[in-house]
Design brief:
The chain is α+β, with helices and mostly antiparallel strands. The chain is built from nine helices and five strands; from the N terminus they run E-H-H-H-E-E-H-H-H-E-E-H-H-H. It has three domains: 76 residues; 60 residues, no CATH class; 53 residues. Helix 2 runs antiparallel to helix 5.
Length: 212
């Protein structure tokens, strides 16, 4: 039998900060990333009060909380100033551009996606740190506006087809070389069929007519 959901206590809205399309780039993942970035600059007790709802950050407190939380309001307002320039992290890039992780790695490696530097973070509850590339939001916006992922996918298909053609051609040449080598080896074997008695240059010797 499914467990019943515990009802949430009533809350009251303290402040709402709409997030512009330039900030979120139409991505819910990006909006969540902005929330986490802002939360990271708040006291621990205040972080759970800040949420993202339909394209806006909202500060909600328990209904029986009389505090106006003005320091938190000021901190969020300050942090959101210029939030459109917040570097874009990998999972946000994948969501904004609707690309796969493998595509992001490939296009970053060949320079089509331009890194704006790296960022190192410590994983929650772990001693290990990870480092990853971040991206300029204006660059990602330009890639999105020009629909470059589709262009790059077509380029990749052409490159893959050309690589397959070259691979097949190389394999055919290798096979032909082996066959030619085998034919040459057979022509150098004496009539008694013993390869151990084959003479070097026997074919050229025969062509000179010295065996006639």
């Amino acid at each position: 039998m499914p467990r019943s959901t515990k009802p949430k206590p009533p809350t009251r809205l303290i402040q709402e900060w709409p997030l512009s399309p330039a900030a979120t780039m139409g991505s819910g993942v990006r909006a969540k990333g902005i929330l986490l970035e802002v939360r990271a600059h708040l006291p621990f007790a205040e972080r759970r009060l800040l949420h993202v709802e339909t394209g806006a950050l909202v500060l909600r407190v328990p209904e029986d909380d009389p505090d106006d939380h003005q320091p938190t309001v000021d901190a969020v307002t300050c942090k959101l100033a210029g939030i459109e320039d917040l570097p874009v992290i990998p999972r946000e890039v994948e969501d904004i551009l609707s690309i796969k992780q493998a595509e992001r790695h490939r296009w970053l490696k060949d320079g089509r996606l331009q890194s704006a530097g790296t960022r190192t973070v410590k994983l929650r509850g772990r001693a290990r740190k990870i480092t990853f590339h971040v991206f300029d939001p204006r660059h990602i916006e330009d890639v999105l506006d020009r629909d470059l992922p589709e262009v790059w996918r077509e380029e990749d298909k052409l490159v893959a087809a050309e690589n397959r053609r070259r691979g097949a051609q190389k394999a055919a040449l290798k096979k032909a070389g082996k066959l030619a080598g085998a034919d040459a080896a057979r022509s150098n074997v004496r009539s008694d069929g013993d390869p151990a008695l084959a003479l070097k240059g026997w074919g050229d010797f025969d062509l000179d007519g010295l065996l006639r």
